[in-house]
Amino acid sequence: MVPTALPRLSDTPAVLKNLGPALGDATDSVYKSLLNLTDAEVQKLKQERVI
Amino acid sequence: MTAEKSKNNKAPLDKLRVLDIATFIAAPFCGVILADFGAEVLKIEKPGEGDPLRKFGTPVEPEQDTFVWLTEARNKKSVTLDLRTPKGVELFKGLVSQSDIVLENFRPGTLEKWGIGYDVLSQINPGLIMLRVSGYGQDGPYSSRPGFARAAHAFAGLAYLCGEPGQMPVMPGSTSLADYVSGMWGTIGIMMALESRRHSGKGQVVDIALYESVFRLMDEMLPVYERTGFVRERMGAETVNAVPHSHYQTRDQKYVALACSSDKMFERMCHIMGCPENAMPDTYGKVSAREENRPLINKIVQDWFITLDASDAITNCQQGGVPCAALFSIEDIYNDPHYQARGNFEVFNDPRFNAEMQVTLLQNANKEAFPALHYLVLRTSTMTLIIRHEETLRFLMTHALTQ
Questions:
Q1: Catalytic site residue from B179, B252, B332, B336
Q2: Partner-chain contact A1 B346, CB within 8 Å
Q3: Predicted confidence pLDDT, tens digits, chain A (51 residues)
Q4: Who contacts B266 (Cβ-Cβ below 8 Å, separation ≥6)?
Q5: By C-alpha distance, which of A25, A11, A16 is closest to B35?
Q6: What are B123-146's pLDDT values in tens digits?
Q7: Would you call B87 and A30 a contact, using CB atoms and an 8 Å cutoff?
């Protein structure tokens, strides 16, 4: 249970989609979709501890 | 905050992408507000450890992230990236080129040291809006000092006013106020910068100091001091400029807050208390007379409240048109029908924490054999129970499983 979001908008209210995410839950998808990195490139960056 | 409603209406910020490279609460709270209303907020975290907020406060389960993380990083996505490496900086620049807003709260100069100050990033993305939250602001003689909300409360003059006269100042109820308020100021700044960008096409920097966020809320303190030299001091539960305006004890040993902020309100209060003669122009009808007689006025009010239970006193005040409320604990809040009716609590079943199984086990408990436990199950969330009463829970689980 968490405090409901504010402010309260009548037509476009806040929506709770997820709680605080697990570390790196979107790392792969973001680098692949926004920066067009390949799986291999993402893996390499992870091994290098850059991401 | 219902899913059905949102289906028909697009989230107001769903075109925005936000890079949240900040830690703890101040700037990230701005990110939460933006995320709650549809912005895609990417929480950029150090590989391996992540935002220290994950480990700050009460963990949901041992070794897990904390409740404050779950609450204040909600609706964000987590992306790992080490900004302290040249490769990390390059990746970050790539993300900036496809984003609208950057939120940061490093010490001033840190991003410049890493080569990602606003001058550099705005070359990559001229429309970029950057929120910079720091303890003391981006310039000025104290700008390089480390900041934290408690220090901001002190520097802003708030902590000085909290507590009894002549005694050590006390913590003003929360050590995170300046963080949350800074996040809100930051959100206001970003909304304005977005509107400005709509016309100019250009982004800008929103510079927020934790202390300023609080100082701006200190009503007339500055102009009055400047004009009269009046230094406001601690007044316990009381306040300047209004009497009676304090906390009072009731017959059932509870406390209520009463706010008679005008002569009209005091007149109403006197009618409620059955002593309208105290609100006459030649008695205490004017605030100047009440300020001169604070102890007497407070005694009159306190003597009335102590004859009533809190709920009756509040009802009487409410019917007489005077603002009065009980001093609520979180338990009171949790059980209050108004909070329930307004939907101020949102339940979210997160598969990571296996909450359903725990609820089932608790419901199977023998309520007569464990009255204290039953009480806790009724009054607190199961997760809180699991954290605070781990041994009891272990016993209960064994009991439930062997039934």
A1: B179
A2: yes
A3: 999 999 999 999 999 999 999 999 999 999 999 999 999 999 999 999 999
A4: B243, B244, B260, B279, B284, B285, B287, B290
A5: A16
A6: 999 999 999 999 999 999 999 999
A7: no
